[in-house]
Amino acid sequence: MRLEPTPEIEAFRRKVRAFVAEHAPGGKTHSGVRSPDPALMPAIREWTAKLYAAGFLGIDWPAEYGGRPDAHPLEPFVVAEEIARARTWPPVGAASLASGALLDFGTDEQRARFLPRIRACEDVWCQLFSEPEAGSDLASLRTRARREGATDDDGAVFVVDGQKVWTTNGQHADMGYLLARTDGDAPRHRGITAFALDMRSPGVGIRPLREITGTTDFNEVFLDGVRIPASNVIGRVNDGWRVAMSSLGRERSGVAARGAELSAVLDDLVRLAEETPVGGRPALEDSATRQTIGELAARVQVNAAMISLAQSRMLHGTEGAGDALLGKIFFSELNHDLAEFGLRMQGTDGLLVEGDAEVVAGGWWQDAHLYSRAYTIAGGANEVLRTQVAERGLGLPR
Q1: 391 catalytic, yes or no?
Q2: Residues 109, 131, 133, 251: which is the catalytic one?
Q3: How many CB atoms lie within 10 A of CB 43?
Q4: CB 312 within 8 Å of CB 319
Q5: Following DSSP, what letter does each residue of 256-310 receive, concatenated?
Q6: What pLDDT does residue 206 have?
Q7: How far apart are CA 187 and CA 192, in angstroms?
Q8: DSSP label at 71?
């Protein structure tokens, strides 16, 4: 594993950093993966389209669809990292997952229809995978799609009934990347099909979920007799599990953002310790506070090393079965501990909430602490992922 960047990558980083500074649509006021207010959506759509137009998104797409196949494979990681470092809005929606599925499994007609609209951010996509009883165990999903009509030429459609949940940006989405069960008798992983769903279709109901943070970042999506043209099947019928796993494997650049996010939070924590009085002195002068911050700083560095190792293995095709799982577990638990200590340093002021006149940093630490629990569940609950590491990564018995 080589940790030092090349001159070419550093030059690219400076280019991206300058672009972000000039064009980003302002800073995020909350931590985590957040859904923007409707008033912000036009600016964030424009920002996303600019990133594509500048060649900073869709880098690994084929040239005929706007990609740069000769680009350095680390460039997508650099872009994600610099956006996170600037603490601005990332590209909106699940377009990277959908585009991965379309590029690997879509028809020429599907690519020509959907990919230009993704690049222009005319379509915001959401991911319709998780269900009330199929989150960490995605293969147990129960949303059904039954076929009507024999061929595409006779207007064949799939009629979908079911429910999805934890759908980020569902209330803003134009398109959905949907998994539904098309063969109830097949083994769990083999009877699933992937679809491109127009979110304006009759029968699609979206209900925003109010979270403990007071925001509505996620949604429930209800599908009641929704008719999807058979031409919107991505890949083959009953092969949706392979489509989904392939597209999830393509979306790797987000791991770079995690390191930048935690480094920024650590910097905030140090500033908070410098400014928070404890016994008439800054908290940073307290030895126990310094020791805890030192421990957290060491873990931030370990997280950065894990990210570098993951990137190196991705580039060389030597990923282990547990690499991504361990990285997610480590990041999510460290992110929680950083936010929790930020609250503890504030003493009783840590009980204040957003809107209180005396709350530190506008309540950012309170919000970050509440949201940090979501990271331990999103993408698979940490308890489930530990079992998967044991079974898949270490080969331990079930």
Answers
A1: no
A2: 251
A3: 14
A4: no
A5: HHHHHHHHHHHHHHHHHHHHSEETTEEGGGSHHHHHHHHHHHHHHHHHHHHHHHH
A6: 97
A7: 9
A8: S
The pLDDT value given to residue 207: 96
What tokens were used for 157? 């459609």
**Tokens coding 297:** 């700083």
| Both structure tokens of 328 | 């997610």
Of 105, 108, 114, nearest to 241 (Cα)? 105
Provide the 10 A C-beta neighbour count for residue 257: 19
Tell me the pairing of strands 125-128 and 175-181. parallel
Report the distance separating Cα 163 and Cα 203, nearest Å.
11
CA-CA distance, 348 to 292, in Å (whole number)?
19
* Encoded tokens for 355: 């809107």
Q: What is the pLDDT of residues 186-217, one digit of tens each?
A: 988 899 999 999 999 999 999 999 988 888 88
Ramachandran class of 395: left when φ > 0, alpha when ψ lies in -120 to 50, beta otherwise: left
- Mean pLDDT, rounded, of the chain: 90
Positive or negative, the Cα torsion across 26, 22, 87, 68? positive
Q: Is the pLDDT of residue 313 over 60?
A: yes
Q: Residue 274: pLDDT above 60?
A: yes
Residues 104, 106: Cα–Cα separation, whole Å: 6
pLDDT digits (tens, 9 = 90+) for 72-91: 888 998 999 999 999 999 99
Q: Give one DSSP letter per residue of 105-148, joined into a string.
A: H--HHHHHHHHHHHHTTSS-EEEE--BTTBSSSGGG---EEEEE
Two tokens, residue 27: 């800073």
Q: Are 369 and 213 in contact (CB under 8 A)?
A: no
Q: Which of 171, 159, 160, 161 is nearest to 220 (CA)?
A: 171
First to last CA, the chain: 32
Residue that has been written with the tokens 């931590």 in this structure:
31
Interior angle at CA 227, CA 226 and CA 228, nearest 5: 115
> Do 140 and 133 form a contact (C-beta atoms < 8 A)?
yes
CA distance 259 to 273: 21
